[in-house]
Fold:
Amino acid sequence: MADAAPVPPLLLASRSPQRRAILEQLGIPFEVIEPGYEEHAPEIADAMHLVREHAQGKARSVAGEAGDRPVLGVDTEVVLQGVIFGKPADATEAEQMLEELSGKTHVVMSGLCLLTPGWEVVEHEGTRVTFRELNPRDLGAYLATGEWEGRAGAYAIQGRGAALVCAIEGDYLNVVGLPAALLVRLLAERFAGTYGFG
Structure:
């Protein structure tokens, strides 16, 4: 009986440790390469269009080094009432973001691009997240953890940021940083059985 062909690892165009952890959790083989793509994040923009454009830019920036391996690019933003909350520059900006999110429902919007030499697909996923009302003590305690650094919207739901959230509607892993349900569906459709899905 012939050995099964080796599964080609996805080439993840990302600097995010969260995305690596999610792929490991799902049992999807992958290799990481830093994307050569500069994001632009205007505060007011069509978030759906922006995350799709960024995901596509990241994936395309490394496609020349992929060979036959599928390339995965992802971008995630936090959006409240049409305003995009990027990564805070400092603790003051992080506090302002968290105050804005307090007691409200925002959307975590991700774009995902999967491409091979033969085709490219770009999709998006949104998850609704509701924060509880945060008082100054809550804000101070969370800011002191430093967890807000480098996080869109100034929080990490997979860490201490979970205590800021009172409800979530949609894909939890999307809030962590990768729309896993969307990725699994695309892999099942495009690579039936190869990665263990479909």
In short: The two ends are 23 Å apart (CA to CA).
